[in-house]
Amino acid sequence: MRFLVSLLLLPYFLLAQQTVPERTERIVIPGTSESYLQFIPADYDKDRLWPAIFVFDPGGNGANGISPFLEVAGEFGYLVFASNDARNGRHSENFDIAGRMINGAISNYSIDAKRMYVAGFSGGSRLASAIAVLSKQMAGVIACGSGFSPNVNEQPTQESFVYAGLVGTADMNYAEMHAAHAWLNKFDVSNRMFVFEGEHRWPDPTTIKRAILWLEMGTEKNAKPEWLAADRRYGDSLFKAGDFLMAHKEFKAIRDGKPTFAQRKYADSLLAVIGQKDDVMQQIREEDQLLAKENKLLNELSERYLQDLKKAKKASFKWWNKQIDGYTITAVEDGPQGKQAARVIRHIQAISLESGFVDQQHKDSYDKALFSSKLLLLTDPDRGYYHYLLVYTHEMGGKRDLALEQLEDSFRSGALKAPEFTTYRLHQQLQGDKDYEDLIARYSTD
Length: 446
Prior knowledge:
This protein is of the alpha/beta class and 446 residues long. The chain has helices spanning 11-15, 62-66, 70-76, 91-108, 123-135, 174-186, 205-219, 225-240, 244-256, 261-274, 278-310, 318-331, 336-355, 365-379, 384-396, 400-413, 418-423, 434-444; strands at residues 24-28, 35-39, 50-56, 79-83, 111-121, 140-144, 162-168, 191-196. It has an eight-stranded mixed beta sheet with strand order 1-2-4-3-5-6-7-8, with helices on both faces. The N and C termini lie far apart (48 Å).
């Protein structure tokens, strides 16, 4: 069974109040409670056609989604629209939500039908690619941190769009994105990977800009010389800085991404130079070997997790302790093995978070959430949010005394601070409880 990791539930997905970024505007869709953020270039002119990007954040946070695009949108003249309502867990609804946003944008602005793009991160990436596959109206996809929808009819085969896959070296979906690249190559879909140093997150504006430039080159018959120069600049900077491993990834991506003849020749020349560096090539071979096995490894971990979840009340942590201890030690190492170990830990965290909340409609959900919360703490015992989730699990499971006991233990250890805890908005059952209020007051003054 392929366990699709679509969202690492960091606190800001659930808890942060949305702040509308500068130069953007919140638009409410008439007749609904739905909204989106939009960015319109200062020199917008309705008498000419403009390119547009439709963005989907996994938590339905348009501010998170639109922010990485603002710099390039302002520089190159893109309209950007980011949904506040399409989010993970609303599969069928998301297409209607996205459709209303896209149709509203097309009605209100002069948008070039040949230069419409969809972008997304994590679960939003899966949604973006599905929209492109089903609508047949998008020129390109900017897929960040996740590949395709798990539904076969929403996966790309013979497509007219181009596909930019952006992923961090420590992203738990790193191997999945490589597999997506291979899948698209099989169907001759023009695509390219953009790898950056980082975890499972929205890419930085520089990486977004590189991807958009490549998309433009992929949808324009004659790429502008300045685009070609900009496309090479990042790889050149890595090469000159001596970061030959990342430079190799970049120039290989250029070579494999249907480049112009000049681009291919340039990439091949630098790959040949890097190919003479035995230590770098050894790391590349090592990473290739690890990647070949990584998806299988992650699937096996997911299967073990699901098996333990079925018997959550009696499940042992002995096996998990051994696995996590080993990966934690390896994760601090430089090189491909260290990065893979970090990705494995992120994967364990992600699958635990996806199942780690109490559903009061299901009798055994408390035991499952408790198992998941404890597993999270094994991966990172000092992370305050994971301590919070354990308290919340007891709270929503009706275990008041255990919730208060865990909360005090977390405060006492310093892993969780009272001011930090009170910023979270999920806790409900303890509100107004005198012992809870006294505990918060006591540790707020320490």
